[in-house]
């Protein structure tokens, strides 16, 4: 089972370059409990490839934001029943 409704969608974030940024989402309820991944501008993010990126639960943490981190982020909940995407959130880096 994977419900439709995200318990919390990520919100738009505006940060200065070099500052940390956190995007948060709470996935829909599901059985089994869905895993959470993130997409930036439609591309799956790989936390293990990037030192300044941490994914923990429904949180996406960027330690030292750069201009290149700016974009549209979507939280994706997945389990055996399927996949659901959150509403998009924009990260603005100035």
TrEMBL record:
Record field: transmembrane: none
Record InterPro entries: Ig-like_dom, Ig-like_dom_sf, Ig-like_fold, Ig_I-set, Ig_sub, Ig_sub2, Neural/epithelial_adhesion
The keyword Disulfide bond belongs to this UniProt entry's keyword annotation: yes
PROSITE patterns in the record: IG_LIKE (PS50835)
Keywords: Disulfide bond, Immunoglobulin domain, Repeat, Signal
Source species, domain of life: Eukaryota
Domain Ig-like: 4-92
Identification of the protein by name: ROBO2 protein
